[in-house]
Amino acid sequence: MAFLTINLRNNDRLTSWKIEGAMEKSKVLVVGGSGYIGRRVVKASLAEGHETYVLQRPEIGLDIDKLQMLLSFKKQGAHLVEASFSDHRSLVDAVKLADVVICAMSGVHFRSHNLLLQLKLVDAIKDAGNVKRFLPSEFGTDPARMKNAMEPGRVSFDEKMTVRKAIEDANIPFTYISANCFAGYFAGNLSQMGTLLPPKDKVLIYGDGNVKVVYMDEDDIATYTIKTIDDPRTLNKTVYLRSPENILTQRELIDMWEKLIQRKLNKSFLSKQELLSSMEGLDYASQVGVGHYYHIFYEGCLTNFEIGDEGVEGSELYPEVTYTRMNEYLKLYL
Ligand code: NDP
Ligand code: GO6
């Protein structure tokens, strides 16, 4: 964000105003805009008043839901830009329309995972030369901290690091969003795998259930994401979304749910070894999931470090955002 600072001295008292938005808001291109997090990024960008471009890929073919979603963005004021990952020129032309590119490329194994396709986008951004900020598809665990992650789940982190390296080698200004646990995948189900709904009577607790994780509403993730794009404080930094009241243990989350339903669930406890041996015989996508759960709920990889000089925290930067608390979020599931 551009600030105009005015200082006035009056009887030895210095008053200073910071006037926000003295410069025009940046133009945003969202790639992957019809996806799960991408659609929320488009909405947040429009809501913040950015001129918003959304990539429209010819490959969507007869996917009418995708097309209808793109058309609904257009109705809300977004511009649709036709371009394909198999046509470099078209990507360059798309990127030239914007100051900021946000990519929400797929990276969930049981849906689809094409994170490395982003290398083509990085090439286009390099050739276009106009982009002031690129936000690649991250939105989760900080991959830079996962150098010792387990197979096969580590592939997500390795691929995100490969994309980071390409960005940094090309000297493209960036912001990485470490969004922690999407509430739709981790909170609504009380962090149970293989379901998106809260269990009715039996809940599985990882270890002692006392490891701190961070649950974030997806709309809030998108709001914070858009806040960072014109902010000099987030230039070439990782923004960790650690909204303080959403830093919870699995037990604390379950307690919230039990208060809402006014009864207790039966609890069983899963040891580290039991979780790891459950991986055997599972399909690839589930093995990836189990690995991620291990790092999050046993190692505490989302919270077992202090944010250093390379990072900043979202709710500290933008205290004006009223983020969704998990006891509110869970009411949807009643
Ligand atoms: P989706 O599975 O919803 O896919 C997003 C978009 O990827 C699609 O809409 C599509 O764009 C694009 N895409 C897919 N395949 C191709 C292709 N072959 N060529 C071009 N574009 C393609 O993604 P998610 O929203 O689930 O994931 C986005 C990010 O969020 C990932 O980095 C993932 O790791 C992270 N994530 C984090 C979670 C957490 O709890 N922290 C949970 C889930 C995801 P289009 O709109 O053009 O069709
Ligand atoms: C989400 C999941 C949920 C897996 C991240 C298997 C990247 C990240 C928090 O999409 O594998 O049931 O950080 O049965 O950096 C998936 C992945 C979690 C959900 C993790 C993710 C989180 C990706 C499942 C399941 C609900």
Automatic annotation (TrEMBL):
Superkingdom of this protein's organism: Eukaryota
Family annotation (CDD domains): PCBER_SDR_a
GO molecular function, one term: pinoresinol reductase activity
Keyword Protease: no
Keywords: NADP, Oxidoreductase
Record-linked InterPro entries: NAD(P)-bd_dom_sf, NmrA-like, NmrA-type/Isoflavone_red_sf, PCBER-like
Keyword NADP (UniProt): yes
NmrA-like domain location: 24-330
GO biological process: lignan biosynthetic process
Family, as annotated: Belongs to the NmrA-type oxidoreductase family. Isoflavone reductase subfamily.
Name of the molecule in the record: NmrA-like domain-containing protein
Organism: Arachis hypogaea (Peanut)
